[in-house]
Each structure stands twice: as structure tokens, then as C-alpha cells.
Model the fold of this input.
Amino acid sequence: MRIIKFLLLIFLISMSFISWAQRNVSGIVLDNSNLSLPGANIVVKGTTNGVITDLDGAFNIQVNIGDVLQVSFLGMKTKTVFIEDYNDLKIILEDDATQLDDVVVVGYGTQKKSDVTGSIASVKNENFNKGVVSNAGQLLQGKVAGVNVSVTNGEPGASQDIIIRGAGSLRSGTTPLYVVDGFALDNSANGISSNPLNFINPQDIESIDVLKDASAAAIYGARAANGVIVITTKKGKVGKIQMNFSVSTAISTLANKIDIFSADEFRKQVAAVGGTLIDGGANTDWQDELTRKAISKNVNFSMSGASDKFSYAASLGAEDQEGILRNSNLKRYSGRLNLTQKALDNKLKIEFNLTGSRIENIRPNSNSIVNDMLRLNPTDPAYTNGKPTINLSNDAFNPLISETIYGDFTNNNRILANIAPSIEITKGLTYKLNYGVDYSSTDRDVQNIPYSTETNTTIGSLNSTITTNTNTLTENTLTYNFREDNHNFTFLLGHSFQETEVHQKSFSMSGFPDNGIEPRYQIETASEPTTQSSYATKNELQSFFGRLNYEFASKYMITATMRADGSSKFGDNNKYGYFPSVALGWNISNEDFLVSSEIINNLKLRASWGKTGNQEIPSKITKASYTESNTGNDTYPLDNGANDLSGYPYGTIYTRLANPDIKWEVSTQTNVGIDFGLFNNRITGTIDYFNKVSENIISIVTPTDPITPVSTYWTNIPNMEIKNSGVEIALDYNSDRSKDFSYTIGGNISLTKNEVVNSPYTILTTGAAQGSGQTDATINGILNGESIGSFYVLEFTGIGADGLNQFADRNNDGEILDNDRYVAGSALPDYIYAFYLNFKYKDFDLGLNFNGAGGNKIYNHVAMSLFNRGSLANSSNTTDRAVEYLNEASTNSNLVSDRYLEDGSFLRLNNATLGYNLNPNLVGLDDLMQNIRFSVTGQNLFVITDYSGFDPEINTGTSIGDIQTFGIDYFSYPKSRTLLFGLNFIF
Done:
């Protein structure tokens, strides 16, 4: 015991000597233009003692006389500083000609941006969209030219459509390939109705790289036709341990109300059209009654650090996001651990990434609620004697009651883990293994609690679904780097094997007792027979790939890629697809005639060509499928005593024909681009022209031969092509950051022309009407020579003397038939754009991000269904659309026409953030933390548009026959306006 006490005393004395010897030294890090460098690393050589400069490039570090500081910043030469005294330091770093200001992630590696020959856009975490963000896609909206991110609706964690350089497929498989820390995700349904990317905490993401052209994406072959989005999570950085704690609270409200009649207006208008007024004596705004002020909370903690041999980054996050409709909630609990260990003189490197998450999602019956909030009689009282009114006019069921009866509950547990050891076999030659698994388990219950009134009865019901997804990946790569004089070669060879399995079981039951217990907790009491279903799919993808990068004198570059993919999804005659690409680059600014230019700092010309594939098709469609049937011509009375079909035997019939000849959809893309930086890189930009042609289009079609064993079948449509061509422009300007006031402005615009050619069909319907008397009527579709999602409708010319619709007889045959329909526009925008303005004054900053689109149309299905004279006459609410034509008859029917087609152009203030960085010195906390940040963020603050619905950014999230629907406004969950208050501590 005495020995322990003595050793402890010696330790304390030695620590006190160290503390006496060490003192703080302050300083600032600048570039050679006297601009501050926030995020520069300062480390005491030979130790883990280090700090990172703040937003002004300033730092404070504890050192001894004689210590050596190593100061580094990406794109700059590392500088060594000897500590001779404790005076303030001013450290100026010089540009490093061998580096660039950025490094981008490419398939199976990274490259300096100056060496990239393909079209790749990179967005860092400091430039992500701010506010209540559920998934990675929202971070990107408006940030990358040529990438159209549209959210399905305003529901928390709603799914979204991300289309890169135009829609290149008919089917719902237009989603890009997502790669998270080297692991390629599978887009198979995992039982979650909301976005499958919700499992990744956006706070954990360091950067997102978008591989847009074929040269950049071809290394992923069969899954890259829709582009590739590479997500990189945060890793530990050399320096002292850094801890980050952030909390935020957000308030969301309905962003835009539709201008339906108030109670007083309603009374007048019903009388004016000669209708029957049912006056409940109240003044109810159902849009207010059925929405709420939603509160969202977010807490995140992270810790990271690194030494020469080891780095780590760990995080925990909890988010509770409420929707503006009641019983609408998304909770996410997430954890992440990233580790890197080096050994054997840094020849051995092991990387480990682990993400675990649990999502609890409650969803309302939003379509029904939105329908009710727009059509219900505003004179009906929402409450009677403090309780929801039971009997509304027209025998309507009070949605305040129905929202308590209906429940949609989803719980998802997901783990994504991969380990990637690599070893340098000999100088320049490295072998790497990447092994990972993505496991997801989801249970979903959709229930209706029993409820009865004098006029309405709801039988208790439950639909329960259990889904499990397993995705395993094994990749082996060999990389060889060779540099001699002006020649720089990088060779990559690889093999990949990925297996995905999906299992789902479903049970449906009804007839539950009304005993106060939810059906999901008493399944044994269901009185009606239980129906059961299940399915399982297993897919395999084997790939061989290679890439050559060659650079001469940092001026001339070539990249050549080849990938061969074999997929179990395709037939025996077309198991493998081959996807080559080649790209050239010329760093003109490194030529002798420009290298000393004071105006042009960067000028690079790029050109590429390549092929990518699309394997996002349903499993098993190349194989025959059968079922049993004893109806129609599927059976024969073998028993002479059979009197009806119940006595007939079952016959085996086809439900799907085998088609071993189905081929990959292939997109061939050419790209020419130029990158530039002017006036000391104050002005930077990119211009790209692309032309993408997709062929071997796969779809489910109706046979032309009337005598076939199946009603539809899957096939490649002969000669059909989908063409996308366009121009992308991105431009940014940075002012002098060394001054108290500085700013950056910039933006991007993409112009895309989409066209379907050589289609053998008059029209393939992509969007159809829903509701009584109009179900399945075509609204838009795919026509030869037109854009995907073209609206094919009658031309409305007004109301005739008989009070009924009049339409143009476009073919002059004296009749109004289907062949009088015309293409009245497209759901796909001609252009999308975004711009931002960032201002900084001392410790204050303000960021504004706008985005918009133009040249597209929206079909207002809500207006067609509800806002008509007949509804008003029957005492259901509408807008002034119903009284637009004074002579319109109340019996006039709603037919699909351009009467309900509206301009979809818009400009949105997507988010605005005002922040203040408090120096801990001012409040005496400099010994505890590096920075304290307060921020206020507004999302969806305003939208400028002529569209009369809730929001012009329409993405239905539906499909017809697996063909994706665009630009039709059904009864979607409305979007919200959000105000978020955030507090962040960096320790």
C-alpha cells in the first residue's frame, strides 16, 4: 500500500511540473492571400495534443518551449513551426501545387478534384441544407446541378424522388445507387412506407458525392444508369479529442392553406347555385381543426480523435419529429462508430464502420384527412359539448374521430456494418477486402379500432406485416500506383459479390370486439377468418471490374473503366452485361502559357463516354409462374356429379410467362465539361453538356395477340429509346474572408430535354384519375416523340348553353372522342435551378438557400374531384372554381381535361439560417470548450407560384403497372413551414 501511495505522489508531482512548464499560445492561420483558414489542423509533433482553427482561423493550444507544431490544411503545404516563446503566432500556409482545394470520392477510392475526368459534384457538410432533415436526400436539394430532389409530401421522413439528369426509365426504378462508406445499398422495399435512407443520421454525414456521367458511374456498372450517390460519414481527425453536443427544437405549421369557402361564403354560394344548404350553425375551418402546431426535437452527441496510427469517431443521436397532422410522428435513435487502425509501418490499415438505428414511425390516413379538410361543410361544428361532433351533415364521419380509430405503426431496426482491411504488398501495390452486411427488420401494423354510431359502423381490423432484408457484400480489389517523373499511373482490379434476400409475411384479420383494447394487442379475439400471405426473394450480383487512371505532368489525363455484371434477375440468355467508359481531361491552367496567369487560376476541359446499366426490375420476372384456378376456362368437370364450380377440380394456369431473353436497360452517355477558377479562385464554376440515351427499355405490357395465356408480360420494348440531353451550369463567388464582413453567392441551373422515341404504343399510361366515375381515366403517359409524363387530355373550351363541358374537336370529325386528346405539357420540368447567399459579419452569419423549377405542368386532381358545382350544391365545401362559370349545371361531370392543368413553376426559399458563434472566452468557458453556436433556421419560408394547390412540388410516389407517376396532385400530405432553434457546443 505504501508503494502505491509513493508512486501516486511521484505521478502527481511530475504532472504538476508538466503543468508548470506548459502554457497556452494563441495564433491565427492564413493562406497566402491573407484569408483565414477555418478547420486547419495544429498538432504538437509526436503527441496527440492538437486543435482545429475556428471560423476565423484562430486557435489556442498548450505547448512547451521547444515543441514543434505541424500545421496542415487541405490544398496547402504542411508547415512546421518551432515554439521559441509564448508570443502570438501568425502562420501563413502556401498553396500546394500537388494538391487541390478538395478531394472527391469516386468508386472504390478517392481523387483530387484536379485529377477528376468525369462529372462529379461534391457537397460538404458545412454546405448541407439546414433545419429539420430526416435523410440524406434532403441535404442535397438544390445543391447540385442536374439533380432534381422532390419530396413525395410533407410527412415526417417522407420518401423522395431523386432524378439525376432526367428520367431514363419507364418504371419506378429511377432511384440512384446509394453507396455508404463503400457499401452499396439495395433499393428493395424493406417494409417502411417512408424513406429507406432515414436510418442514416444526417448529423453523421461528412460529404455527399454525386457521380453523374457514365465515366464516373460506370465502375458500378449495372446499377449506375440513374447515377450514383456516395455518402461518406465522419471520421476522426488528427488532433485533440473533439466532442460535439447539439440540441434543437423546431415548430412546424401548415405552410399554405387552400382558399376554400369560409362558413359565411359557403352559405351564400350554396344558395347562389340553387343547392340545398345544410346549416349546422357553426364557423369551422377544417384545415385548422385537422392540423396542428408540430414540435420536433433533436439531440446529438459525437466524439472523435486520431493519432498517427489510430482514429475513431463515435456518435449517438435521438430525433423526435412530429408532423402537422395528428398521429404523425417519426422517432429515430441512431448510433455510429467508425474506426481506423494502422500497423506494420502503416502498410496494414483496417477500417471499420458500424451504424445502428431504430425508427418508430406513426402515420395517419393522410389522403382521407386531406380530403375531409377541404370538402367538409364549414357550418358543421367540429365539437359538441367539448367532444367531437358525431353526426356531421351528409352523414360524414367526423375526421376528429376517425383519426383516433386509424393507426399505422412501423418499427424498423437496422444495422449496417463493414470492415475493410488493406495491406501494401509491395511499394505501390495494395490489396483491400471489403466485407459488409446490411440487415433490416421491420414490423408494421395498420389497424382500425371498432367504432359505431347511428349512421356509421367501423369494424375493427388489423393488417400486420413482418419484413426482413439481408444484404451482404464481399469485394476484393488490387490497386497499383506508379509514379515516375511526369507519369502517374493508377490501376484498379476488383471482384464483387453481393447477395440480397427479402422475406415478408402478412396477416389480415377483422371482427375485433369493442372492448377498449387496440386490435394489434388482441389478435386472438378476431372473429373473421384470417388471410395470410408471404413471399421471399433472393438476388445475386457478381461483378468484375477494372480502371486505369493515367496522368502526365498534371496536364493530361485519361480514365478507362470496364465492369462486367452478372445478375440473377435476368434470364439465362443474358446473365451478364458489360459497361465500358473512357474519359479525357486537360488541365489547361497548368500549361506554360497560363501557369503564371493572375486571372485564370484553374481551367480544365473534360470529355467522357460510357455505358451504364439498370437492373432495378422485379425479381423472378424472367421465370414462369403458375397458380391454381377453378373459374372460367381454367377448369373442366371431370366428375359427372358436379353441379357447380365448387365441384370442379382446380386447373394450373400461367400467371407469368418465362422470358430468358430479357436484357439490361443500358444508358449510353456522352459528356463534355469545363471547370474554371478566376481571380485567385474568387470565381469558380462548372459547365457541362450531356447526352444520355437509354435503350432496351423494360416494361410490363399487354400482348397484341388476343389469344395468350396471360394478360400482361415483361419484355424489352424493341427499338424504344429514352433520350435526355441538356446543359448544367454552376457558378460561385467568394469575397475576401479576412475582412469582418464577407460573403459568398452562387447557384446552379440545369436545362434538360426528355424525349421518348420509337415507342410502338399510342400511349403507356403513367397517371390516371381516381374516384367515382373517373377511375383509371388516363391523365398522362408516355407517347412517341414526347416527354415522359406528358399530359394527354381533352382541350376544355368552356361551358355550353346546356351547362355542360365543351371540348375542342381537334380532329374535326364532329365528335368528341379519345382521339381528340392532345399533349398539353409535361410533368417533368424543362429546367431546375437553385441559388444561395451567405453573409458573415464578425461572429454572425446568415445563409439563404433558394430553389425552383419551371416549364412543367401539374394536374390538380384535388380540384377535379372536389371543387365543382355539384359538390357545392350538395352542401360540400369547394373553392371559387365551382362558381367560375355562372351557367354551369350542377350535374356537369368532371372529365379529364386541361381545365385542371396548371403551371407548376415555382421559386422557394428552401431554408434560411441566422447564426452566432460565441467565443467561450467571453463567458469564461475557454478551458471547457472551443465554440458555442446559436442558430435559428426557417424552412419553406415562402413559395412564389401560380399553382392553386397546397404546394407545387408534386411527386405522387405512386405507379401504374410499375410505371412511375409524375405531376398529378392527389390528396397528398401538405407541407409545413418550420422554425428551428439550435444550440451547439464544441468541446
Observations:
- The CA atoms of residues 453 and 832 lie 51 Å apart.
